[in-house]
Design brief:
Layout lengths: L2 H30 L14 E6 L14 H11 L5 E4 L7 H15 L3 E5 L2 H5 L4 H17 L3 E5 L9 H18 L3 E2 L25 H12 L4
Parallel strand pairs: 1-2, 1-3, 3-4, 4-5
Helix pairs in contact: 2-7, 3-5, 5-6
């Protein structure tokens, strides 16, 4: 190879390396500015986060039979591209849910959050003002994250006293009204008063009740999707 040819090849190689360096710099700047580079990969589906307690965590039954899993199946069947993340923990109170909400929002970045909490607060006879404050803070945090929120109402047995029971149930209406948020009136409507749909403890619904629970939620949820 001639000296001229060698020099030309060297200059071409140098130009390629310089272009690669510049392109690397451009990509870094785009990433820093939050500009996405098309990669041909499909965008991940939006997340529907369920923040609940044992009523949503499939307590006492197979996880596959729980209403949250049935919800994912319905979304798939209807071609609604959502990924359901069940962040429900048995025994959770509104205070516990509020404490773990920021991390759940940061990790999952949901488009919709369903808040099903408060039942354990009521069963423990906790302060109604604290319950309301916790629910309000959760709704506020969810809205600030850019996600939509669906609040799920609960009732407690009347043996806690009529006044306490009614005021407890009224909290959900009050919070929903303040934030103009959609509200499922009562998650266990048509279930809690049917012994055949409840487990032996009289508190948790059995597998046969899960489809009915989903039907209680669905009319209010589908409008957010």
């Amino acid at each position: 190879m001639s000296l001229l040819g060698s020099k030309g090849a060297y200059e071409a190689h140098f130009q390629v390396r310089r272009l690669v360096r510049w392109w690397s710099v451009i990509l870094l700047l785009m990433a820093a500015l939050g500009v996405e580079v098309a990669s041909g990969a499909a965008a991940p589906p939006p997340v529907l986060l369920v923040l609940g307690d044992s009523l949503s965590s499939a307590f006492g039954i197979e996880v596959e039979a729980g209403w949250v899993r049935l919800l994912q199946e319905r979304l798939d069947q209807q071609g609604r591209a959502y990924r359901v993340v069940n962040a429900s923990i048995s025994g959770d109170t509104t205070a516990a849910g509020l404490a773990r909400l920021p991390q759940a929002l940061a990790v999952h970045r949901p488009a919709v959050v369903l808040v099903e909490l408060g039942g354990n607060d009521g069963l423990r006879g906790l302060d109604l003002g604290d319950i309301r404050s916790n629910l309000e803070k959760m709704v506020s945090h969810i809205r600030e994250s850019g996600a939509q929120v669906l609040l799920v109402g609960m009732r407690i047995p009347p043996n806690y006293g009529f006044a306490y029971s009614e005021r407890f149930h009224g909290i959900y209406r009050e919070v929903a009204a303040r934030f103009e948020a959609p509200l499922v009136p009562f998650l266990l409507a048509g279930v809690a008063d049917d012994r055949q749909l409840m487990q032996g403890d009289g508190i948790h619904p059995n597998a046969s009740a899960q489809e009915r629970i989903l039907e209680n939620v669905w009319p209010y949820l589908k409008d957010l999707l």
